[in-house]
UniProtKB/TrEMBL annotation:
Entry EC no(s): 3.6.1.66
Residues binding Mg(2+), per UniProt: 46, 75
Protein name according to UniProt: dITP/XTP pyrophosphatase
HAMAP family: Non_canon_purine_NTPase
Keywords: Hydrolase, Magnesium, Metal-binding, Nucleotide metabolism, Nucleotide-binding
Length: 199
């Protein structure tokens, strides 16, 4: 049995404004007072894990310890079949110190030249951690294809080059509510809610 979140204040342990916005959207229907790691001036921990789950755990634990509150982290990324899963856990790092996703998306396109498999997945590991060190982790994916050139300005990160399976537009072109109905983050969140939130 997963430990339940009892309600009240919850730290959203991410320094990515796009993610914080999406997580706040997903939390809205629940009795949760979300505060972001940025609001609390929490440091951005170094992501030394070798899996999404490990990095999610280290980010949530760091925020829960530093704040004394339960903390929810998200470690996510794009995994391209033709690139053996890259950029994967390095998705943020491909954008460089300036967090320029124009550069990161171009690199995906350049490395895919000559490969004819466009399939890719977005992956999201969510971790809910408590100040006593207890953690719950949920990981989900969404399948799609890489689409070039980048289109749409509604999302963040790699959204303009990811077209989810069965759809004709990219996540960058999609309304947030529609992305929340199918994304890796929304799917992992559904698991989190089923297991850790009071009904
Ligand atoms: O670690 P935090 O502070 O949460 O913020 P971050 O941006 O560094 O986040 P990650 O370490 O999890 O890196 C994942 C990168 O993958 C990209 N990514 C993850 N989910 C995405 C989504 O739904 N749409 C587009 N890009 C996404 C995004 O650009 C992230 O920067
Ligand atoms: Mg990060």
């Amino acid at each position: 049995m997963a430990r339940k979140f009892e309600g009240g204040r919850l730290v959203v342990a991410s320094h990515n404004p796009g993610k914080v916005r999406e997580i706040n959207d997903l939390l809205r229907p629940f009795r949760v007072e979300a505060v972001s790691a940025g609001d609390l001036n929490l440091p951005e921990p170094e992501e030394t894990g070798v899996t999404f789950a490990e990095n999610a755990i280290l980010k949530a634990k760091a925020a829960a310890e530093a704040s004394g509150l339960p903390a929810l982290s998200d470690d996510s990324g794009l995994s391209v079949n033709a690139l053996d899963g890259a950029p994967g856990i390095y998705s943020a790092r491909w954008a460089g110190p300036g967090k320029d996703f124009g550069i990161a998306m171009k690199r995906v396109n350049t490395e895919m030249v000559g490969k004819d498999d466009p399939r890719a997945q977005f992956i999201c590991a969510l971790c809910l951690a408590w100040p006593d060190g207890h953690v719950e982790v949920f990981e989900r994916t969404v399948d799609g294809v890489i689409s070039w050139p980048p289109t749409g300005t509604k999302g963040f990160g790699y959204d303009p080059i990811f077209r989810p399976e069965g759809h004709t537009i990219t996540f960058g072109e999609m309304e947030p509510e529609k992305k929340h109905a199918m994304s890796h983050r929304a799917r992992a969140f559904e698991q989190l809610v089923d297991n850790c939130f009071q009904k």
